[in-house]
Amino acid sequence: MTARLIRAEDDPIERRAAARLTATFDGKHLEGEAGQTVAGLLLANGIDSWRTTSVNGRPRGLFCGIGVCFDCIVTVNDERDVRACQRRVQDGDVVCPQHDELPEVKH
Ligand code: FES
Prior knowledge:
Keywords: Oxidoreductase
Number of strands: 7
Protein name: (2Fe-2S)-binding protein
Shape: elongated
Bound molecules: FE2/S2 (inorganic) cluster
InterPro entries: 2Fe-2S-bd_N (IPR042204), 2Fe-2S_ferredoxin-like_sf (IPR036010)
């Protein structure tokens, strides 16, 4: 056994079960724990991309995880441009993917 693989009852931190919560992403029911970020909730539910790039529509999700890159933006409860890695999910949150077309350039 390594230091990383200790039984829960031997864990000196004594982690307790967190309150459960539910949210939706793109209409899909998700279950998580109080204290999780939106990104943590999405990843824990098997969703690893939740935005597409303006050019070519490529999938994006978590990149830096610390609020710097803005790759993880989503819409939460109709609020756009929320960084999923920075926002703690609340019970009942409605999370939606976000895709923005680039403005057309006129010459
Ligand atoms: S992953 Fe970079 S800002 Fe959220």
